[in-house]
């Protein structure tokens, strides 16, 4: 779908209806609720719990959605909207639409091609993709699938600064345009769905491809580790070891198993993964190791946004991790106006959390977002139809947004502002 063609959204809508007349429907459901239910049938219970679940009572997940209902669009009439453009600019780079694919980890839970399939769809749609630190495929593989479509890298700050530097340098080398540092996952939130089934995919060696493909991590694996707690083996733990070995790089299963490196990798990852001691002063280390723009992902308070400016950061992703970290937290859209007021026009703001349709994108832009991120919807598309499923989800959202923009009387993203809402 060519984003700056005024007929692009209408053409896609027409194609859906004409294909339906011929007895062909989209692979993925268009309505967000139906999409989630369709994906649920395509996923294992463990995968659906991990992707769909939130922390605690999941009230933050609900808050992300309910925040959008507080604002209403006020369409304006008799404006020439025959020519429309959804293009935006961030850090001097023009993007076809104000929609990014957010980092979602452990995508091998829903499709074996995982991050590479998402990258293929992102490239097909010319939509930027933020690679996950907890990817199922190394960033270099996903980068090749992106072609000339811009992509960013999400960084989890581990306990090893050497590993942090290595990740960032690899991101630069493979062509990433920016680094988004996730701040809200210094510890895992109390994720009730995962806890109910006692399942954490990392213990099976899933979602750690950025680590096992990294030379610094491979060196760290050879360092002495504290003795592991001895547990009586069960058939379930043996199956986990088999999965762990299968997920480790290499084709010779027995060689991998007897080397002991798959188990070492998981143990080293668990010991390094998160860093609750991280502070604002640590950000200077990152600035020393990359020339790329740095965004802070997880900012929810205007004072933290001002601090981001004070510490020389380049942008913010307003996010509560899709409601997966703190139960009862504020919805991201609720905090957007105050954060935009705090930073003015000095940095781009991406809004993450609760985006499900074109009207949501419109409302976020009207309240000051530069762009938005989507996560669960495209993961559902991946589960249903691989790269094609992701592409259809993205195409539907972009068409919905473009039509909403035109029907509201706007021809350019910059025309969408607080006067568009009530």
Note down, in words, how this protein is organized.
- By secondary structure, this protein is α/β, with parallel strands linked by helices.
- It folds into two domains: 46-195 and 275-420, TIM Barrel; 199-224 and 234-272, no CATH class.
- The protein contains 18 helices and ten strands.
- It has helices at 8-21, 32-42, 45-52, 59-66, 114-125, 139-146, 161-173, 192-196, 209-212, 215-221, 235-247, 253-259, 261-272, 283-289, 302-310, 332-343, 358-366, 376-407; strands at residues 88-90, 93-95, 99-101, 129-131, 151-156, 179-182, 294-299, 315-318, 349-352, 371-374.
- An eight-stranded parallel beta sheet has the order 3-10-9-8-7-6-5-4.
- Helix 15 links the parallel strand 7 (294-299) and strand 8 (315-318).
- Helix 2 (32-42) runs antiparallel to helix 18, helix 5 (114-125) packs parallel to helix 6 and helix 17 crosses helix 18.
- The chain is globular, with a radius of gyration of 21 Å.
- Residues 1-5 have low confidence and may be disordered.
Write the layout of secondary structure elements.
Elements: H1 8-21, H2 32-42, H3 45-52, H4 59-66, E1 88-90, E2 93-95, E3 99-101, H5 114-125, E4 129-131, H6 139-146, E5 151-156, H7 161-173, E6 179-182, H8 192-196, H9 209-212, H10 215-221, H11 235-247, H12 253-259, H13 261-272, H14 283-289, E7 294-299, H15 302-310, E8 315-318, H16 332-343, E9 349-352, H17 358-366, E10 371-374, H18 376-407
Parallel strand pairs: 3-10, 4-5, 5-6, 6-7, 7-8, 8-9, 9-10
Antiparallel strand pairs: 1-2
Helix pairs in contact: 1-18, 2-18, 5-6, 5-18, 10-13, 11-13, 15-16, 17-18
